[in-house]
Amino acid sequence: xxxxxxxxxxxxxxxxxxxxxxxxxxxxxxxxxxxxxxxxxxxxxxxxxxxxxxxxxxxxxxxxxxxxxxxxxxxxxxxxxxxxxxxxxxxxxxxxxxxxxxxxxxxxxxxxxxxxxxxxxxxxxxxxxxxxxxxxxxxxxxxxxxxxxxxxxxxxxxxxxxxxxxxxxxxxxxxxxxxxxxxxxxxxxxxxxxxxxxxxxxxxxxxxxxxxxxxxxxxxxxxxxxxxxxxxxxxxxxxxxxxxxxxxxxxxxxxxxxxxxxxxxxxxxxxxxxxxxxxxxxxxxxxxxxxxxxxxxxxxxxxxxxxxxxxxxxxxxxxxxxxxxxxxxxxxxxxxxxxxxxxxxxxxxxxxxxxxxxxxxxxxxxxxxxxxxxxx
Length: 376
Known about the structure:
The chain is mainly alpha-helical. The chain has one domain (2-374). Helices cover 68% and strands 3% of the residues. It has helices at residues 2-11, 17-29, 39-60, 78-100, 112-143, 166-175, 180-198, 201-216, 223-230, 237-245, 257-288, 292-304, 308-317, 323-345, 358-362, 364-374, and strands at 72-75, 161-164, 220-221, 251-252. The strands form two sheets. The chain has a two-stranded parallel ribbon. A two-stranded antiparallel sheet has the order 3-4. The chain starts with a helix and ends with a helix.
């Protein structure tokens, strides 16, 4: 068994992605078989997606897909969404995984006594990647039961399609006594607008740079795991399992100054993006959705109800997506429109340097003045 454990830790790499995937799927499905998305529902999303895309293009002037074609909306079950999201976020999390994996490789050729001592002595460091995998898998699994689309977290994806979760959309409509087609159409408009913005080279590059810098600056302390394991009899597997079951030992240190600086910049860019997207979604939605008022209020309340999975992902990437952040973005957009009209918003996407700084998000006049000066 010791040899098997050593080989497993040597081959799984610095992050237990398969462990994360399995747990994410188990949480997403709650251990039950998940049916495929109804073909009739797929067709309905195709119809509503075409309507939404036409109005988003008209409202923003942005291309929603490569080559001027139509963006593809892909309805998925919760388990499939969890798997796709884990794969999409993996490149951003690899630096953290690599840092966790910087531990001496166990020698599978050691004799049993030496190998057991080496394994137990290194469990704190070895289990760090496993614990991160468990936490990430659990968080994404729980998210899959709430999110309605792939951009509920505004993280760019290298894909020409948009994944949506019909089961959650239907559940949201039922819970709030809303017309399901109204919610579907809102999701289409919102996700297509986010897709159009996040696929812009300037926005994509800036977001990935800031997200990567934040994640790459983590310093994880495995001492909590080592402390719990220090008093465990390695031959008592029940006690060992209990000691490893609680992921609380995998905690980051206090946010570093590098992370704080990047988070402040990231929050400013996200506020501008979400403010713009909310503005477009509301303008288009009020024209297309009969019960937009009740739907808007239900969405606002859901934003206030943050759950553990959302909190973990926000902490992991340095994102803040509470109502305060959305209000900040709304105030920025309103300030730009008041001074420069709707056309003023289009300047957001000129280049990476056109994105507002933290100070400019809170004082949109400063942002307009800078862009006007640079344009002379």
